[in-house]
């Protein structure tokens, strides 16, 4: 059974808009970082946009997700505000985390976005626990855990999937297999070709999807979320994709063969979808251009707004260590 | 008439908090029907049913990680680590996730989580089932660390821990579960106890002995011994290591002028270092003698009973050490 | 391809002797513990003897193995001396670990027995590292990691098997699936029925064997060790077996259905093999009886010897914390 | 003429020990062809080939566990943890296995293992890539803990660590790798340095400042500042935290009568507690003022540069704190 999700043209344009928003958000962030405006690490999501947008398309209020060090795409796909994201990257008071988290820890709890994570595999148990709480409360919600191919070699992956299958937790494990963990190609970090093969180790359903085809991702997400909401348990989804750039800003990615890069650049998820939109789905070029303009405008305004935001006051460094710090607990 | 044990206290605290709030649940290994290795969760499975009792595979990282994730969604999980030694398998989720989430998300959400750990040495369970690791957690900003020494404190502190909005590490000493007794009765009502308030178990004027968990009971017995020799020891239990009752300790030091700290962890890097260092800074003027730290020898815990006894502080060794200390100090 | 291992009758009697030695060692240990002569935990290996004996039959000098909390059987099968094992259980100076380890940490480094382990799954990376060192040194050695069904849910299992397969390490992962992890039945701790199914997650070879049939175990061990020594990489061997008693001495094991216990007691590995020996292989009853007597005598003498051994001197409590403790490092 | 950096020092120490002994090998994530995130292993892959360089999947427990297992078979592995924060995923193998094996097997075998960890704060890498966790390891019997502050010490101590028969935790501060410089030259020969011998970086008579890693350099700069104001600070670097040069510290305290400890870890539960506690016990008679501990604020490390700077001790904050301390102390 494959779930069929039929989208209107407007919905399709919206999918395109979201992917473009992610793409341009990241490209702009990269430029801002090069100018010295963003400190710390930045792991661009460029190339993988169809995965975030496709999966999040099937989420509702009350659902939750965890992300990785490469988290901006998931966060934007979940509807977070680029203004406050840039403000966070700028380490400002009005950023999502009030300047305390940055890229690696950005969170939007109101939208159930339970955070980027600086620990590879660190978010997998968290999402699983969120799913447990949904099951306990019979909320009908689902949790999603995004992670990379490299993360599937961490113990947290194994322990979490085993439990989720055992308890039939409402969760999607979404592995974005972009062929590399940091500078290490998949065949140098695991002997399997398809991460989805690991599902069988937990008697879990595993599926492979073209992670550069947003509607294909939507189809598997629709089925997996339906199964999860119906109490039929978790799915491991392997989305085959590629990161266009280095592991982080500053990594020139010289360790990748040029043919491989070329192959994948031709399969750019935005180009592919734009071609379908204007071809198969009959979108007109103006509509696409309007989206481009709007995205550009939104991001320019967002970055500008962010740049005007106040820095946190130094006294905030010891705030929020505890919710209830009693007397003296949070002192030096 | 039944005696209220430390194990009863813990079971009752969990049960009462589960009754009061369906967001409270337990998660851990073999905590289900079997009642747990130490019998702490006995009856909870039947009384609180599946949705408040989650008996897991052997997967410590996931046990804690799931609890953290559920807490992020508003649950109040009580995770059990069968022996605190096994917490080493879950350190990332404790130190890098639970402790930091509230802070690094700018206060967007909190992690109201209790991690119960069976701690301490006893019964020749050897190096990997006997450690006193509280010092590792007290140094992590964002965690609270409790170490109750009596059934009443165990119940009151655990209730407070479950109600607390922050992640709490809750140490239970394996040799305190059974025998020590407490007030008579099957169920003893105890109110939640505010963190950061120490307790004077025995008043004294010559020396302050700070101690907790099982060692506190050795210290109390040693103090009785010393009393007969004319040494008046005040025995003070911080009960909560983080937050720590600094005012309470300062007051006791002001009175006695002398500080001894006794715990089961090795001296080097034990929580006693923090207490001593703090006192050497903030109570320096009141101290009339060097601070004395008593703890385990700097070794893993050996299996042989004769070695186990040698490694650990005992009533006799505490009495001896304090006696010699007082001789030097006078 | 299945390796064929043909044993002489004498060799078969020796296999029986080893299994019996383990059985009786454990039964006696249980009695000694009941008398208060052995402190700490004791996890009897009774019922699983064919696994240890069958696997270790295929090991050579220079091979290495790691064990679990239930380690006596593996240690005896590797040729360790019951005298010094009882002495260790008695916490005496001449015990294998000089009284510092006890059952949970017993080790015989000279025979490559790298120790029981108090941490479930804790030995799996250690054996994998031993295999790495063999590969590095091209020693032709193999490592064996024994562990239980419950241990296969720990992250260490996952991380280690992934690496071993990737680097084609010479190692056997031997899961003794005795249906329970502590008080928890397999179907309550994992959704799969066959642990061997997990091998595919690492593109590793997985095999299932009747763990109560010593010669069947030998056959899979022969093949797996041959592959390992030939540089063809690791094997995950699942031996289906059962522990006859509770998880540890003191556990009444009331959580097990009687029919299940009955079923397995009828499949006692010693009974099965004795029947084959006297039937199919034509051993005579006297030979069997002679083995019984010799084992009994050996263990009586061993326990007696152990009971006469000196206790460690209290001053040893701080010895061997470091090999080189420099000045002051090992002080209180 | 090239400058010998801290990163060079570490690379050279590994390379020289690999040349000397084929049982030495490196194991860790992305340490191969790419040269590692901090470029420390650059050229090692080519020079020492596959059998001495093992580039692993992302599996911290296995990285350390394999190293321990190989060490049990006689190898001398150098395991790399990319950021010390990730060591939390490997704590069981470090604390329960590596640290205890020699002891709990009655000395049957040893674990000659070095675990290198990138430590400390800098560059807004935020709460999970910035911790100073040395205090967790110093409390574990069986581990040795090193914290070199200069290129020479890094090279000499790492060579000694690789030759040492026990498990050694080796902290490298991320902000020391690049710039700090050292003697000129591409390859600087440095002999192995004996553990437990501190180093006086600056002589003084009024106050002893104990510091290490990056904070040492702040302390030295602060001492220069204070010197102009007539405060003579002795700056002393223990170099190895376990074993610790007690005699060296005692001698300095005897001279100055005053003890300040400055490190990047939070004050509560940091290794400074152990130093202060030891001094409050063993040097009490020589201390003329309360011990002062300087460290990070008790918070996870925040992302914003302005907050990161506030949380950490700096040259200015150390100078200020010591200035105020001397005012009180006189
Ligand atoms: C526990 C841990 N180990 C190592 C790292 C360093 N690190 C950050 S990202 C990364 C690679 C992750 O690869 P993958 O999971 O495939 O995600 P991708 O970067 O490809 O999106 C590594 C090794 C880390 N952050 N956490
Ligand atoms: C890390 C860790 N978690 C939990 C335990 C407690 N424990 C000891 S044995 C055991 C069950 C192990 O089950 P399995 O791996 O199937 O081995 P078996 O006992 O059946 O031989 C448990 C949970 C432990 N020793 N170590
Ligand atoms: Mg990847
Ligand atoms: Mg089992």
Short description:
The complex is a heterotetramer, with 2 copies of chain A (332 residues) and 2 copies of chain B (330 residues). Chain A is built from 10 helices and 7 strands.
Radius of gyration of chain B: 20 Å
Please indicate the count of domains of chain B. Answer: 2
Total beta-strand segments of chain B: 12
For the largest interface in this structure, which chains are involved and how many residues does each contribute? B-D, 55 and 55 residues
Helical run tally of chain B: 11
| Mean pLDDT metric of chain B | 95
Order of helices and strands of chain A: HHEHHHEHEEEEHEHHH
DSSP E strands of chain A, number: 7
Oligomer: heterotetramer
Shape of chain B: globular
State the separation between the terminal residues of chain B, measured CA to CA. 47 Å
The total count of helices of chain A amounts to 10
What is the level 1 CATH name of chain A?
Answer: Alpha Beta
User: What's the alpha carbon Rg of chain A, rounded to whole Å?
Assistant: 20 Å
Shape of chain A: globular
Strand order of the largest sheet of chain B: 2-1-3-4-6-5-10
CATH topology of the largest domain in chain B: Rossmann fold
Major sheet description of chain B: 7 strands, mixed
What is the helix content of chain A? 40-55%
Explained architecture:
The complex is a heterotetramer, with two copies of chain A (332 residues) and two copies of chain B (330 residues). Chain A has a single domain (9-331), classed as 3-Layer(aba) Sandwich (Rossmann fold). Chain A is 40% helix and 10% strand. Chain A has ten helices and seven strands. In chain A, the strands form two sheets. Chain A has a five-stranded parallel β-sheet with strand order 1-2-3-7-6, with helices on both faces. The termini of chain A are far apart. Chain B has two domains: 6-176, Thiamin diphosphate (ThDP)-binding fold, Pyr/PP domains (Rossmann fold); 199-329, Rossmann fold (3-Layer(aba) Sandwich), CATH 3.40.50.920. With 330 residues, chain B is an alpha/beta fold. Chain B has a seven-stranded mixed β-sheet with strand order 2-1-3-4-6-5-10, with helices on both faces. Chain B has a five-stranded mixed β-sheet with strand order 7-9-8-11-12, with helices on both faces. Chain B has eleven helices and twelve strands. The chains are: A alpha/beta (332), B alpha/beta (330). At the B-D interface, helix 4, helix 5 and helix 9 of B face helix 4, helix 5 and helix 9 of D. One thiamine diphosphate sits between chains A (68-70, 118-120, 147-151, 178, 180-182, 247) and D (29, 58, 60, 82, 86, 89).
């Amino acid at each position: 059974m494959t779930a069929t999700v039929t989208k209107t043209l407007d919905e399709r344009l919206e999918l395109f808009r979201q992917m473009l928003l992610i793409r341009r958000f990241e490209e702009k962030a990269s430029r801002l970082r090069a100018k010295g405006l963003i400190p710390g690490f930045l792991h661009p999501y460029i190339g993988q946009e169809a995965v975030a947008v496709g999966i999040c398309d099937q989420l509702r209020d009350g659902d939750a997700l965890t992300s990785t060090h490469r988290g901006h795409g998931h966060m934007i796909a979940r509807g977070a505000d680029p203004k406050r994201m840039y403000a966070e990257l700028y380490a400002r008071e009005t950023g999502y985390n009030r300047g305390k988290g940055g890229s690696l820890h950005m969170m939007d709890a109101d939208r159930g976005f339970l955070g980027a994570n600086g620990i590879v595999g660190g978010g997998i148990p968290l999402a699983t626990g969120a799913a447990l709480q949904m099951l306990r409360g019979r909320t009908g919600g689902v949790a999603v855990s995004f992670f990379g191919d490299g993360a599937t070699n961490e113990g947290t992956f194994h322990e979490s999937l085993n439990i989720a299958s055992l308890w039939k937790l409402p969760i999607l494990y979404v592995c974005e297999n972009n062929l590399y963990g940091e500078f290490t190609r998949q065949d140098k970090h695991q002997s399997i070709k398809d991460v989805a093969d690991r599902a069988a180790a937990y008697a879990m359903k595993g599926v492979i999807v073209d992670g550069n085809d947003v509607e294909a991702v939507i189809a598997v997400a629709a089925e997996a979320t339906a199964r999860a909401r119906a109490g039929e348990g978790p799915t491991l989804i392997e989305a085959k994709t590629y990161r266009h750039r280095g592991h982080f800003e500053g990594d020139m990615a010289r360790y990748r063969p040029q043919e491989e890069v070329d192959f994948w650049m031709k399969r750019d998820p935005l180009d592919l979808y734009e071609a379908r939109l204007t071809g198969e789905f009959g979108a007109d070029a103006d509509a696409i251009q309007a989206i481009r303009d709007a995205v550009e405008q939104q991001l320019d305004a967002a970055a500008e707004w962010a740049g005007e935001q106040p820095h946190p006051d130094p006294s905030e460094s010891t705030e929020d260590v505890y919710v209830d710090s009693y007397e003296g607990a949070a002192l030096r | 008439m039944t005696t209220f044990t430390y194990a009863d206290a813990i079971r009752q605290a969990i049960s009462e908090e589960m009754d009061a709030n369906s967001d409270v649940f337990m998660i851990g290994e073999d905590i289900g029907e079997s009642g747990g290795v130490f019998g702490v969760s006995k009856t909870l499975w039947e009384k609180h049913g599946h949705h408040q009792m989650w008996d897991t595979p052997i997967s410590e990282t996931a046990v804690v990680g799931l609890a953290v994730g559920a807490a992020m969604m508003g649950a109040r999980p009580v995770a059990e680590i069968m022996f605190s030694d096994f917490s080493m398998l879950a350190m990332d989720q404790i130190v890098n996730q639970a402790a930091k989430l509230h802070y690094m998300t700018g206060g967007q959400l909190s992690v109201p989580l209790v991690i119960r750990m069976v701690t301490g040495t006893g019964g020749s369970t050897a190096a990997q089932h006997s450690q006193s690791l509280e010092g590792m957690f007290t140094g992590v900003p964002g965690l609270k660390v409790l170490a109750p020494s009596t059934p009443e404190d165990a119940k009151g502190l655990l209730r407070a821990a479950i109600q607390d909005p922050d992640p709490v590490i809750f140490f239970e000493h394996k040799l305190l579960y059974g025998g020590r007794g407490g007030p008579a009765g099957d169920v003893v009502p105890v109110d939640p106890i505010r963190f950061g308030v120490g307790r004077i178990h025995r008043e004294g004027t010559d020396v302050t002995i700070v101690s907790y968990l099982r060692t506190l009971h050795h210290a109390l017995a040693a103090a009785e011994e010393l009393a007969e020799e004319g040494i008046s020891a005040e025995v003070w239990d911080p009960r909560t290591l983080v937050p720590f009752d600094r005012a309470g300790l300062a007051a006791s030091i002001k009175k006695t002028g002398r500080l001894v700290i006794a715990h089961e962890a090795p001296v080097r890097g034990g929580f006693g270092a923090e207490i001593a260092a703090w006192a050497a800074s903030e109570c320096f003027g009141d101290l009339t003698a060097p601070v004395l730290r008593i703890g385990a020898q700097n070794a893993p815990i050996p299996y042989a009973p004769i070695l186990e006894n040698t490694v650990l502080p005992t009533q006799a060794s505490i009495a001896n050490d304090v006696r010699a200390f007082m001789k030097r100090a006078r």
